[in-house]
Structures are given as C-alpha cells and as structure tokens.
Amino acid sequence: MAFQNKEVVYTILFKTAAETLRTIAADAKHLGAEIGLLAVLHTWGQNLHHHPHVHCVVPGGGPSLDGARWVGCRPGFFLPIRVLSRLFRWLFLAALQGAFEAGELSFFGDLTGLAEPDAFAAKLRALRQIEWVVYAKPPFGGPAQVLAYLSRYTHRVAISNSRITEISEQSVTFRWKDYRHHGKTKLMTLDADEFIRRFLQHTLPDGFHRIRHYGFLANGHRAAKITLCRKLLAVPSPGPIITANVVAACAPAVSPLDTCPCCGGRMITLAVTSGPRPLRRPTWYDTS
C-alpha cells in the first residue's frame, strides 16, 4: 500500500511518528515537556526489500509546557515504548482511513480489491490486532557522536558501494545483516534485473523531503526555541556563524583569469611554466 501511494503514506508516517513522540512527551505522567526531533525517512531493509520507516533523533528533554524551566528525562529512560507503539498505531491507521475517505489512495494489481470500503475496513481491523514496533536506542555519547550519526544516515541510499562484493553481467552479490540471526553478516546474490528492481523501489516522489524537523526544532521557530532552551539550560550562545556570504565578502577579488570558465570556481595556481621559445630567424650576411 505504501509502495503504490508513496507520497501519501510516507507523509502520514512522518506526521504520526512526530505527533506520537510530542504527545506522549507533553503528558505530565511521562515527561511534561515540549520536545524537538529530527526525522529521516528510510524505505529499505538490509536485503533491499521495501521497508519504510523513520529514524528520529530526539533530545532527552525540552522546555516545560509553560516555557519556565527545562525538563530532562530520567537517566537511561526516555518514553514508554508500549505507550508510544499503541498511540502510533492508532494515529497512523486513523490518518490512513482519512486518506482513503478523501480518495487520496490508489490500489493496483493484487491490492485492487482494497478500493472497496468493506475490504479496506477489514484490512485496517487486521492491522489493529498486531503489535507495531517502536524502538528506542540509548542516547549518543555527545555532540560529536550525534554529528557522526547524522553524517552517516541523513543522506544514505539503499545500498553503498562498500557492501557490493561482486558484479557480473548476470548478477550482483552484496553483504547484508540478518537481524533475525543476531545481526549475522551474510552474502546475497540477486539476478541483475532483480537487484535493479529492488534498488528502484526506493526512489522518492519528486520534491519529497526525506528529512524533516518537528517540535522546537521545526523550521518556523527553531531559532527562538533553541535560544529559549539555551537560556533554561544556562548554556552560552555559540559564537557567530561564518556563512558562505561572509566568506565571499571577505575574500579578495578574483581576477577573471583565475576563474574556471566551466564552473565559475576559483582556480589555484600550482606552477608557472614558460612557453616555448620563438624560433629565431636566421641572419644572412651579404659578403659580396
């Protein structure tokens, strides 16, 4: 269903995951704070099958709902997994039902029958009977580890070149981790056309944003909210950020001769060589 309705279902996945985290965090029984989060969409599993899910990086606390103090989570515990799972399931299926009633979902092939309201309702009933997985990992070690994680995960594609061990005209062999066997690394060989099919499943709709920010990290008020967080945590503001515009303004003027004619970038002089010496015309002397 998600594969045939990528933009609609992926958007529901983003919004309901963020709403789940923010709702439970705002509940005084659990945290009682306004949190922020960065969410990254991944659509693949280790074997390249279609497996849409979001990774969320969430600070371990946030301003109280009245903005008067900072509320941090308990050491080693953020939010209850079972409560998150139940609310996520309810919100997601409610949003999916709303998309169906609004005529935003399309069904093809084996899923054609889901276009009938009774069949779709039966499908949702079945999905409500199973457990939905929400997983919370331990916190990072510090800012450096957060940046390292983001650099690895925010712009990943379905498979990296380093995992591919062999390519031929007929097949592709790659490494994958089998999490059902404790993350054991195995090799999988697929016919070339099957490998391409699996890889192309993860192409996103044009203009779709796979990295999104919510809560006090949302783009509309991030600067003001982070300023408040620093104030509540008694953390000094960072120094001025040097932007590309500042660098360009301070850089010395570049001569047109030092500019690349193709990309417009600045060329660096590595060496200067003299051109070939001009041929000297022979000198003739009249000895007559």
UniProtKB/TrEMBL annotation:
Q: Which residues form the Transposase IS801/IS1294 domain?
A: 36-220
Pfam families on file: Y2_Tnp
Known InterPro entries for this protein? Transposase_32
Q: Which domain of life is it from?
A: Bacteria
Name of the protein in question: Transposase IS801/IS1294 domain-containing protein
What species is given as this protein's source? Acidocella aquatica
